[in-house]
Amino acid sequence: MSLMLAAKNLGLDTHPMDGFDHDGVKKAFDIPDNYWVPLLLAVGWFDTGKTLAPPKWRKTFDEIVVKFH
Questions:
Q1: Which of 62, 14, 61 is CA-nearest to residue 40?
Q2: Any domain includes 36
Q3: Residue 67 has pLDDT above 90, yes or no
Q4: Contact call for residues 56 and 33 (beta carbons, < 8 A)
Q5: Is residue 69 part of a domain?
Q6: Measured at the alpha carbon of residue 61, what is the angle toward residues 59 and 65, in degrees to the nearest 5?
Q7: pLDDT band, residue 4 (cuts 50/70/90)
Q8: pLDDT tens, 42-65?
Q9: Which of helix, strand or coil describes residue 49?
C-alpha cells in the first residue's frame, strides 16, 4: 500500500493483480525459489480517454449486506 500511495503522490496510478502464474513470474524474472510473490503491481498513467467497465464478478450491495429489522 505504501508503494501505491507513493506512486499516486507522483501522479501515477497503480493496480494490484492476483491470480497470475506464480511459477511463470518467478521464472521470467529469475526469482529464487525461497522467495514468494504475493502480487504483481501495474504502475503507470491512466489513459483518461478510456473508461473502465465495472468488474462483472462483484456482488451488489444488496447481495453482500444483511439487514436485520
A1: 14
A2: yes
A3: no
A4: no
A5: no
A6: 105
A7: very high
A8: 999 988 898 877 777 778 888 889
A9: coil
In the chain, how many domains are there? 1
Domain that includes residue 35, residue range: 2-64
Summarize pLDDT for 12-38 with one digit per residue, the tens.
Answer: 999 999 889 999 999 999 999 999 999
Q: Are 44 and 10 in contact (CB under 8 A)?
A: no
Structural element, H or E, at residue 62: helix 61-64
**Is 14 exposed, middle or buried, given 0-12, 13-18 or 19+ CB atoms closer than 10 A?**
middle
13 touches 47 (CB < 8 A):
no
Residue 51's identity, in one-letter code, is: T
Please give the pLDDT value at position 60: 83
Is 22 inside any structural domain?
Answer: yes
Q: Specify if 25 maps to a domain.
A: yes
